[in-house]
Amino acid sequence: MYPQAVEHIDDDGRSILHVAIKYRQIHIFDFVEKMEIPTRRLIRKIDNDGNSILHMIGRKPNDQFDEDMRSPALILQEDLLLFERVTKISTIHFTRHFNKKGQTADRLFAENNINHRTEAKEWLKRTFENCSIVAVLISTVAFAAAYTVPGGPNQSTGYPLLLDQPFFVIFALTDVLSLTFTLTSVITFLSILTSSFRLSDFKQSLPQKLMLGITLLILSVSMMMLAFAATVILLIRNKQEWTRIALYSVAFFPVSIFALTTPNEDQ
Asked: Domain range spanning residue 136?
């Protein structure tokens, strides 16, 4: 209704981009960015403290950190990606612009995120420790299952008695995949622990390693569920019909719950 208001400057010398970036109103930033002519002028505005719009990324109010329920590492990653995005639309001059305190935008961002960076580092370490415990337990079970195959071995040949059964192949394959996924996730989590935890690492490297490790851990759990289900089916294949139906349902129940809950957690 009032397009001229986009270029309004408040008493502190801030444009709408200054305020939108500081308070993380990204939908407003997106809207103004599409208005090419005003945007060219607004990205050159400097407030009364000498801050460009790039400086405002490092001036996020502290109460917003307290209200945000997401993990510190993901919040820091979002701010780093926003910094990169605003840098692309800013001119080269303003990426190295000094405010009245003699701070460039990247220095201001680094100084104001020291505590948040420490919190993100500690959160990643706690996540690594918890996930590693689960991964080691899963690998122990998967490794033990490989030597205690369903039906037991043939005493004369040493081969499994149920080797020719189709579900034995499923058991063997899922058990091997569970162990492989688990050990790979442990290696991924160890690479996080040995990281230097530089500020730039929180933009892509650390979050990607974390998501990869958790994904492998989830796959490992799903493979262990399938191995359990295949084992139960192998052991009850000669039982009565109603018994087989009941035990089939119990065997596949964890897999069904996993399939139903995983999409909700991702959202």
From this structure: 121-266
